[in-house]
Amino acid sequence: MNSEKTFQQKYSESSPEMCRNPTQKRKNYLDWDEYFMALVFLSAQRSKDPCTQVGACIVDNEKRIVAVGYNGMPRGCDDDVFPWGKSGTKLENKHLYVCHAEVNAILNKNSHDVKNCTLYVGLFPCNECAKMIIQSGIKTVIYMSDKHAHKISTIAAKRMFEAANIEIRQYIPKKKEITINFDDINWNNQNQMPATPSKDDLCSNPSEQPRLRPS
Ligand SMILES: [Zn+2]
């Protein structure tokens, strides 16, 4: 017998029998931090950077996503033409060109502003992003990795965050992984109990026909 759990079993903790007569809500749903940090790393998968893929996600006080971003070349700067390397002359390496994930998220927000919002990001922001984070009104930064803690740009960023009273928190994952396996999902094999009534079923009894407007 196949001991591998299906997607539904892994994420719903429920057997088909339980789904027929649910009595309580699911327990292992993603909490907010897990959800937004997963979006950060999903967005990072869009990055063309061969070495470092960073994502960012900005959330307002009502947990609404107002922006996502990842590191990439500015619009119009062909990412097949501009350099992705880290060595060579300054003009021939990526650092002068790439927009960091935080910058792309802030500049591409879909809300009026990001005042008092929370920024989730994979890597602790550099000093240039820190300036923009502070000036945009973001109040909280939740990051995953601080691997550049020794760099002067990170030290400067921390100095500015502290002065500007930005709350900084490291995200410590509770789950080892969050997986979306499209093979596991396989919706076609999942039965819905009871089956959704067809239009013909609904209309077979005239007294049960749906009303379009209150009578
Ligand atoms: Zn940066």
Automatic annotation (TrEMBL):
UniProt catalytic activity: dCMP + H2O + H(+) = dUMP + NH4(+)
Name the needed cofactors. Zn(2+)
Query: Which Pfam families does this one have?
Result: dCMP_cyt_deam_1
Annotated EC: 3.5.4.12
Name the UniProt key words of this record, in alphabetical order: Hydrolase, Metal-binding, Nucleotide biosynthesis, Zinc
Q: Does the keyword Ligase apply?
A: no
Location of the region described as Disordered in the Swiss-Prot/TrEMBL record: 1-22, 189-215
Q: Name one GO molecular function term.
A: dCMP deaminase activity
Keyword 4Fe-4S on entry: no
One GO BP annotation of this record? nucleotide biosynthetic process
For this record, an example GO cellular component is: cytoplasm
Name the residue ranges with Polar residues bias.
1-15
CMP/dCMP-type deaminase domain span:
31-155
Q: Which domain of life is it from?
A: Eukaryota
Show the SUPFAM superfamilies listed in the entry. Cytidine deaminase-like (SSF53927)
Per UniProt, the enzyme's principal EC class comes to: hydrolase
Q: What does this protein do?
A: Supplies the nucleotide substrate for thymidylate synthetase.
Q: Into which family does the record put it?
A: Belongs to the cytidine and deoxycytidylate deaminase family.
Protein name, entry field: Probable deoxycytidylate deaminase
Q: Which organism is it from?
A: Aphidius gifuensis
